Amino acid sequence: MVINETAIEVRYAETDQMGVVYHANYVIWMEVGRTKLIEQIGFKYAELEEQGYMSPVLGINVQYKTPIRYGEKAVIRTWVKNHTRVRTTYGYEIVHEDGTVAVTGESEHTVVKKETFRPVAFNKIAPQWDAKYHEIKAEQ
């Protein structure tokens, strides 16, 4: 299993009036982690879109454990939890600098043709990327 770790410095704009990271920002950070994982294994999501495909979110699940505050640093850990012909599930853990877990979550995605929004088999349009996901996924 490959886990990408991406550091984030909490900006003031990402917090609420209490100085705590606003809950929706964790979902944005998950996207950052997902993009960095894809790049780490040698691919670019933007190139998939250039070829006429998109990967919409089918579902997202987030559990909030401990707050992260303005001025702190966080690390987004991202991995491929499961991968099939038409669905990919990413796992996430966002932790404080000391390793304390702040957030856990997962998101489920599919790949669709841009103009029709019809699902396509990932192995048909990106066989090397598909093979890499099978190689690194957590659930074997």
**What is the CATH topology?**
Thiol Ester Dehydrase, Chain A
Number of strands: 7
- CATH C-level class is Alpha Beta
How would you write the strand order of the largest sheet? 1-4-5-6-3
Multimerization state? single chain
Shape: elongated
**Unreliably modeled segments:** none
Q: Report mean pLDDT, rounded to a whole number.
A: 96
Q: How many individual helices?
A: 4
Order of helices and strands: EHHEEEEEEHH
- Share in helix: 25-40%
Keywords: Hydrolase
GO molecular function: fatty acyl-CoA hydrolase activity
Family: Belongs to the 4-hydroxybenzoyl-CoA thioesterase family.
Summarize the structure.
The chain is an alpha+beta fold.
Key attributes of the depicted protein:
5-stranded antiparallel beta sheet, 4 helices, HotDog_dom_sf, alpha+beta, Thiol Ester Dehydrase, Chain A, fatty acyl-CoA hydrolase activity, 140 residues, 4-hydroxybenzoyl-CoA_TE, elongated, YbgC/YbaW, hydrolase, 27% helix, two-stranded antiparallel sheet
Description of the molecule:
- Pfam families: 4HBT_2.
- β5 (88-96) and β6 form a beta hairpin.
- This protein is elongated.
- With 140 residues, it is of the alpha+beta class.
- A five-stranded antiparallel β-sheet has the order 1-4-5-6-3.
- The N and C termini lie close together (10 Å).
- It has one domain (4-136): Roll (Thiol Ester Dehydrase, Chain A).
- The protein is built from four helices and seven strands.
Write the layout of secondary structure elements.
Layout: E1 4-9, H1 23-40, H2 45-50, E2 53-54, E3 57-64, E4 73-83, E5 88-96, E6 101-109, E7 112-113, H3 122-125, H4 127-136
